[in-house]
Amino acid sequence: MGSLDLPYVSSFKGGSETFLQNVFESILKTYLRKNPMAKTIWELVKSVDNEKISYDHFFFRTFKVDGYGIESLSSFFMDYGYKVGGRLDFPKKKVQVLWLSPPDVHVPDNGYGIGNGLLPRLVIAELLVDELSRESQEIIRKYLKPEGGKQAVLSSILGSLIWEKPTSADFNQLAKESEFAAWTLVYGYTMNHLAFAVHRLKHRFSDIKCVKEYFEEKGFELNKDGGVLKVSQDGLLLQVSAMSEKLVVEFADGVTQTVPASYIEFVERLVLPQFKDMPRDEIKEFHRREGLEQASAYHIMESTSFTA
Fold this sequence. Notes:
Elements: H1 17-34, H2 36-47, E1 55-63, H3 70-79, E2 83-90, E3 95-101, H4 113-116, E4 121-127, H5 134-143, H6 152-158, H7 168-177, H8 179-187, E5 193-197, H9 208-217, E6 230-231, E7 237-241, E8 246-250, E9 256-260, E10 263-269, H10 294-300
Parallel strand pairs: 1-4, 5-10
Antiparallel strand pairs: 1-5, 2-3, 3-4, 6-7, 7-10, 8-9
Helix pairs in contact: 1-2, 1-6, 5-7, 7-8
Cofactor: Fe(2+)
GO molecular function: dioxygenase activity
EC number: 1.13.11.93
């Protein structure tokens, strides 16, 4: 897999916190507007026992070609204090993933949401286009404009493609080799999914098993790939995700068909063993399991499976 030589910025620029929060709020609003089922789940979480929402991470997909890859998004957020946390490689999918930890900002003990709580981690995946067949590479490259990746954040905020709407023939041909590629060609930089931080929620939803049971009872289809509840090898990272709803997409040639859209995930990070005896009200995010889990992340990506 290719290396990720990205710039590193360690400080949060004074006076820019509100701007960064507004960027995230705009990305979130676009995501909820474009994904009705995800919005329904989001509203249910917010309404149950008057939950105050907290986010674990926001996830995006990109093409690693001509400036459209991970750096097209990460460079902006690193300018505002995000730091590289780690990376994962998925050779079978020809995908690599980078996750970024948020800048240190003062958050009240009862802080929640983007404006009053911890900023979300960022997880950005890129498809290694050069490892695809020549035919798939040609399809992707003919849509991408030179220097277009510089508009990645704006594209995510607006929910608009930087490139032209693809034809159904190109989409279906691409999907035969890589569903990741086909999904990204259709939805671009629109947020692929958000993940709630279950351990920062209150009442009923503070336990991921209760979250799982609640949404099963409500009739939502959950991702069963690798099991509905994904558990890391150390047992400290628990994840559940809903399957994407399928939305009608109209292609450039006038053909319409349903394509999986975005989805929602739930993440519970348990307290690290060395802090297990700490009083609950003293536990902070850094006392909990950090990072991602290779196997679980692989299964979670199947939430947009075209054949599910």
